[in-house]
Design a protein that fits this description.
Layout lengths: L1 E4 L8 H10 L4 E4 L1 E2 L2 E2 L5 H13 L3 E6 L12 H18 L3 E4 L14 H14 L6 E5 L9 H10 L4 E4 L1 H6 L4 H8 L3 E6 L1 E2 L5 E2 L8 H10 L4 E4 L4 E2 L3 H4 L12 E2 L2 H16 L1
Parallel strand pairs: 1-2, 1-12, 2-5, 5-6, 6-7, 7-8, 8-9, 9-12, 13-14
Antiparallel strand pairs: 3-4, 10-11
Helix pairs in contact: 2-3, 3-4, 5-7
Length: about 280
């Protein structure tokens, strides 16, 4: 299986991300944060520099983990967002990324998602038209608070826009109160790749296999249907004061899933998923 990661959770620097991916034997990057900048904001020369560094290390960019579609459907500046999307597509091509992770707009407080449906559909359609001919595949991720946060609305959008594929994030469904197995049954034909993140009922994120996301069963089902790519998204808690408070040999001093550093949290997330697919 090809395993990628949001390695900016290990280090903000590209060099640190490369080191984290190499020591965990990963295939490459779902790129999001680049030396302190969001990937959608970097220049094209910077994108070329990043690609050279990754290729020199034997790594690739699998997907651009963009913030595209993460604006309020009513209050967001959509024309400016389209301009950002076009630049992000240029960045994706410079990076050699075949995929663009994106979203379906935040729903304003006090509004029902169905009240915003037509505007969501219209703006998604404009975004997809902007990407025509780019060679970059748009991949919609379920995210809490956006129109496509439940399996039903994700399925609706993926059927309506067959040029768009799905990213399945178990933890985000858990955080929305959506059973992940029933979500998988509805969405599996549309899923291009997985985001490996797990969560408990209170919304807290834990290593893959330790929460309610049924990550093992979903990963097995994904592989059985020919799926071969996943991105690790750790989101694990780093406790900055851990080292100062920890007693010798007392690894549980601040809870089972709190880590002393970003590197340690990243490595734990990678090890958890390796255990699932072993």
């Amino acid at each position: 299986m090809n395993i990628y990661a949001f390695a900016d959770e290990a280090s903000p620097s590209v060099d640190g991300q490369i080191a984290a991916m190499k020591r965990n034997g990963l295939s490459g990057l779902e790129i999001r944060g680049v030396d302190g900048e969001n990937v959608s904001s970097i220049s094209l020369p910077k994108a070329r520099e990043v690609r050279r560094k990754l290729e020199d290390a034997g790594l690739t960019v699998w997907s651009v983990g963009s913030p595209i579609g993460k604006i309020d459907i009513d209050a967001g500046d959509f024309p400016a967002h389209l301009t950002l999307l076009r630049h992000t597509l240029d960045v994706a091509r410079e990076l050699g990324a075949a995929n663009l992770r994106m979203f379906s707009f935040y729903i304003p407080a006090g509004k029902r998602p169905e009240d915003c449906r037509q505007k969501v559909v219209d703006q998604l359609g404009e975004m997809l038209r902007a990407g025509e001919g780019s060679g970059v595949l748009f991949c919609h991720e379920n995210e809490k608070g956006i129109y496509g946060d439940t399996a039903g609305r994700c399925e609706e959008l993926l059927r309506l826009f067959p040029a768009m594929r799905g990213v399945f994030n178990p933890a985000n469904f858990v955080q929305c109160g959506q059973d992940t197995l029933s979500a998988w049954e509805r969405l599996s034909p549309f899923i291009h790749y997985l985001h490996i993140k797990d969560a408990l009922s209170d919304g807290s994120v834990v290593p893959a296999g330790k929460g309610l996301g049924h990550v093992r069963r979903i990963t097995d089902a994904f592989r059985a249907q020919g799926g071969c790519c996943a991105t690790i998204e750790p989101h694990l808690r780093v406790f900055d004061g851990f080292k100062g408070l920890e007693r010798e040999g007392d690894a549980g001093a601040v809870g089972s899933y709190a880590y002393a550093s970003s590197d340690e949290a990243f490595d734990a997330a990678c090890a958890a998923f390796r255990g699932i697919i072993a």
